[in-house]
Amino acid sequence: MSKIQNSLIRKSAIAAAALAITGICAGMLPAQSINNNMKAQLKRYVKQGTEVRFEGYLTGYSYWDNTPPGSAAIARPVLRQQAGGTGTYNDPITIAVGHAIRGGRQTLDFPPGTRFYIERLRKYAIVEDVCGDGYQPQNGPCYTGKNGRPWLDIYIGGKNSSVRETEQCMYRLTGMQPIRMNPRRGYPVTRGEISESGCQVFGPVG
Length: 206
Fold this sequence. Notes:
- The protein is an alpha+beta fold.
- The protein has one domain.
- The protein has 4 helices and 9 strands; from the N terminus they run αββαβββββαβαβ.
- It has helices spanning 7-10, 35-48, 141-144, 163-173; strands at residues 22-23, 27-28, 52-62, 93-102, 105-108, 115-118, 123-131, 151-157, 175-181.
- β6 and β7 form a beta hairpin.
- The N and C termini lie far apart (33 Å).
- Residues 1-26 form the signal peptide.
- Keywords: Signal.
């Protein structure tokens, strides 16, 4: 289970703001004033399998600040039993999403197995974990989002790196990112665990 780790993320303001989502196959979606409404729109496209491009807030979590610390444990295994992946379409990297627990029932912002393509990392990712701890994770930033955008938390690895190196990597990739949900095959990929492949950040894919 991922944790929100660095001080930049801890101090992030939680706000609701309008956001336009660009649907690659579906044209322009209307701007949403609340993150939950936007997530509801995206969930419809998950079911349809339609590729959609939107702006999301991306953070990272590592082997060292996972829950429990010093592990690659995940909450919702799909392709593997531990967090991992090299970022290809067939081997996407584990990504964590916000979740809510109400009446003893857990609901994820995006279903386990949902695929994304993170343009600036040149990595495919798959939902296999949740972001936010405690009995009411819906009160935390992963669920409420950042400035009206969905919050995604990608696993960077780091078992063979120092804590400081992984923190620097997470800081580097944190921010608003163009993201594709239900991506097609064939987008550019820089293969490898994020922390082990240089924690590279590129420009958006055209």
